[in-house]
Design goal:
29% strand; 5-stranded mixed sheet; 33% helix; 4-stranded mixed sheet; alpha/beta
């Protein structure tokens, strides 16, 4: 199968989705591929799940992995709920006319520009629900099972975040990416109260603007703003690559340490999916956080490896 992927010009990546995550079988297969296994290939993600609420797993869970594998173009994903793929009397499955039409159109619902998801009025409610009630709730459940005491909150709660609509800068000028914002104000009181009570906040990153319009906020940049407001000692960003590469996909170009001035110069040359993460690290350190780290969240105990080993782990951003 790996050889067939290597020989293909286009690849369809199909998976069932459960609790906003793609299947373990697919994860194992993707882990077996070379680091640039999808380089120069067109990739179409397909997924099925129990309800429409799981559809954002294509964007928030699967797409970053496909980007890290070097896909030249990732087409808008196609999602079908179980009710749209009924079982036939012969034991097979019949895709509904609606899904067949969407497949023919290659799925036009999701669009990314410069690493940011284009969000419309029709999708912002789904974004809010999935981020809080699926992804954040799932993380909180795992923390609780490990003996912690997690509490789920979002940028809407207790005025935690206030945001403004942002546009994407390009050579042709500003590009509208819809109801996507950047955090402009942070009120960390609710987070401090949770920490004082011995709880672990799990924050989903949607935030209202001054008029109350809900915006989809990039999680990396929101975490950076929150770290600055909290006076954090360190910002840690987990991703699915070993760290920052100065010359992606050259795996020998992994950077262990970089200063803010060096990162500022390198930022325009990075792959689009890595830009928000490194921008978050840059903003945090420039905002007074002593250091920021990008580490591979796929590695067991990666946070502990970074904190408690002499050599560290991933890429560390330091003040110039």
């Amino acid at each position: 199968a790996i050889n067939r992927v290597a020989d293909a010009q286009a690849v369809v990546v199909a998976t069932p989705v459960y609790k906003a995550a793609y299947s373990g079988v697919l994860k194992v297969f993707l882990d077996l591929l070379p680091q640039a296994g999808f380089k120069d290939k067109v990739v179409l993600p397909l997924a099925t799940g129990g309800s429409p609420h799981h559809m954002l797993a294509l964007d928030y869970a699967l797409r970053p992995v496909l980007q890290s594998l070097g896909a030249r173009q990732i087409l808008s994903g196609v999602y079908a709920s179980d009710s749209q793929v009924p079982k036939t009397e012969s034991g097979g499955y019949q895709v509904s006319e609606e899904i067949e039409a969407r497949l023919a159109e290659l799925g036009i619902e999701s669009e990314f520009k410069g690493g940011f998801r284009v969000t419309t009025q029709e999708t912002i409610g789904v974004v809010r629900d999935v981020l809080r009630n699926q992804i954040s709730a799932g993380l909180a459940e795992m923390i609780n099972q490990a003996g912690g005491d997690a509490v789920v909150m979002s940028g809407e709660d207790a005025n935690l975040f206030r945001a403004e609509v942002t546009t994407l800068e390009s050579e042709a000028g500003p590009v509208d990416i819809g109801l996507v914002g950047e955090v402009t104000q942070v009120n960390p009181r609710a987070v401090f109260e949770a920490l004082d009570a011995g709880r672990i906040p799990v924050v989903s990153t949607v935030a209202p603007d001054a008029e109350g319009q809900l915006l989809n906020v990039n999680a990396d940049l929101a975490a950076s703003s929150l770290a600055i407001a909290l006076g954090a000692e360190k910002l840690m960003v987990l991703t699915d690559v070993p760290g920052l590469y100065s010359d992606w996909p050259n795996r020998d170009s992994l950077v262990s340490e970089i200063t803010t001035s060096e990162l500022q110069d390198l930022l325009p040359k990075l792959e689009s999916g890595m830009i928000p993460k490194m921008q978050a690290c840059l903003s945090a350190v420039n905002g007074g956080v002593p250091k920021a780290h990008v580490i591979d969240g796929r590695t067991p105990h990666s946070i502990l490896l970074e904190i408690f080993t002499v050599s560290g782990f991933g890429t560390m951003v330091l003040p110039s």
